[in-house]
Amino acid sequence: MPTDGREFTVAEARALIPEVRERAAEVVRLRADLAELALDLRTSGSSPLGGVAEAKAFEARLDEQIAWFTGQGIEIKGIAPLLLDFPAVLDGRSVRLCWLEGDTELGWYHRTELGFAGRRPLP
Questions:
Q1: 84 contacts 105 by C-beta, under 8 angstroms
Q2: What are the two backbone dihedrals, phi and then psi, of residue 86, each rounded to the nearest 5 degrees?
Q3: Is residue 3 predicted with pLDDT exceeding 90?
Q4: Residue 121 DSSP label
Q5: How far is the C-alpha of 123 from the C-alpha of 109, rounded, in Å?
Q6: Beta sheet of 82-90, edge-to-edge order
Q7: What's the CA gap between 37 and 59, in Å, rounded?
Q8: 37 near 49, Cβ under 8 Å?
Q9: Using CB atoms within 10 A as the burial measure, which of 26, 27, 92, 111 is most buried?
Q10: Helix (H) or strand (E) holding 5
Q11: Residue 123 CB partners (closer than 8 Å, separation 6+)
Q12: Measured between alpha carbons, how far is residue 23 from residues 19, 46, 47, 117 in Å?
């Protein structure tokens, strides 16, 4: 998803990680609830989680969470699992500081043109 062109320092990105983790936990919860609700509605027509209105509400809340990330200049590369990139420059090279659902800290990066396959520990 496009961002506002913001570039983060490692310190700036790391300072956001506590809120990133909180919001990521909400994304995971909403993603799971929506998946379960959608399956139940498709297979049996009803769900303990609600109906079509509740599914729309889950989608709206998920969109709100995603909008927070993009509003900060964070790129969302995947939703399941949640994979986030913080645009940055290291040693004069364009990189992405990379956070994956379940990470407790920001400890990885990759060159912008390589993507996840080029992921390395931050120096």
A1: no
A2: -110, 110
A3: no
A4: E
A5: 9
A6: 75-79, 82-90, 93-100, 108-111, 120-121
A7: 11
A8: yes
A9: 27
A10: none
A11: 90
A12: 6, 28, 25, 25
Distance CA 83, CA 118 (A): 14
| CA angle in degrees (0–180, nearest 5) for 109-87-22 | 80
pTM as predicted = 0.90
Summary mean pLDDT of the chain? 94
Phi, psi for residue 68 in degrees, rounded to 5:
-60, -45
Residue 66, pLDDT > 50, answer yes
3-state secondary structure (DSSP) of residue 77 = strand
Q: What are 86-119's pLDDT values in tens digits?
A: 999 999 999 999 999 999 999 999 999 999 999 9
Quote the CA–CA distance of 35 and 105 in Å, as a whole number: 27
- Residue 49 tokens read as 């989680």
Tell me which H or E stretch contains 33.
Answer: helix 10-43
Phi, psi torsion values for 2, nearest 5 degrees: -65, 150
